[in-house]
Amino acid sequence: MTTIATSFSELEEQICQRFDSLSKRLRQVGRYLLDNQERVAFDTVAVIAEQADVPPSTLIRFARAFGFSGFNEMKTLFRAALVEGTSNYNERRRLFIELEEEPLDPESPPDILHRFAKANADALEQLVSLVNDEDLKRAVTILNQADTIHILAAGRSFNVGVYLAYALRHLGRKALLIDGLGGMFEEQVSMISAKDAVVAISFSPYASQTKSSIESISKIGCQLISLTDSAVSPLSGPSDVCFVIKEASVEGFRSQSATLCVTQTLTVSLAALSDKQD
Fold first, then answer.
1. Any idea which of 25-39, 83-97, 127-141 has the lowest mean pLDDT?
2. Largest CB tally within 10 Å, which of 10, 39, 61, 209?
3. Residue 211 resides in a domain
4. CA–CA distance from 90 to each of 33, 97, 229, 264 (Å)?
5. H helices within 36-172, ranges in order?
6. Residue 264 near residue 167, CB atoms below 8 Å
């Protein structure tokens, strides 16, 4: 018999543990719920079903699969978690929009800048509450103890990987970028040893090269740090430390401010640790 979760963290853990055994439709619901905690807390069942691209009955089936009498009972966990973890930034954001006296022209460059800047500011503020302090410390320790740091980032995440490799090399660390130049992803991955560390960066829809490389890396026995967007992403399972990052998105254009913030935090923290040890 399924133990009914009494908190969002318990529910999140249950969804992650059972994710692969769920039907395709229920996995679709699970991914949406974990990736949109705030929206689930406020939206109606009809809106959630529309956004998750499933019929409302599927939401009810999902809730019952985890022991709840209905979806609204499950939804109370999302609301409670939001209230307990909020620093009132959500309320401030809504109030700001409501009190804006002169709506800006949505076509104008100043308005586009305004929306990107605000969305990124919100994402960075949320980042502080999403990132676990112990995960940060453990990630820095892993990087510090690694013989070589390999960075896996393809597609839209590539520039973040390039920056991290650049920053680590300026610290005097041996950092190699797995870029697949000449189609040599497999050859570059084969150079990783159990004494190394890998930092993998990928966001939905997840670069195919990254997914296939992660499968190989997980068999090597090295330490893996991942930066991704979901607790059920292909990177999270094999990771020793996983940072789930919610990036800002404006009209389909996803930012990278929060991801870069995490990489800068890791780099500067590693530098500080090195100074203490010298």
1. 83-97
2. 209
3. yes
4. 18, 11, 20, 26
5. 37-42, 45-52, 56-65, 71-85, 89-99, 109-130, 133-145, 158-170
6. yes
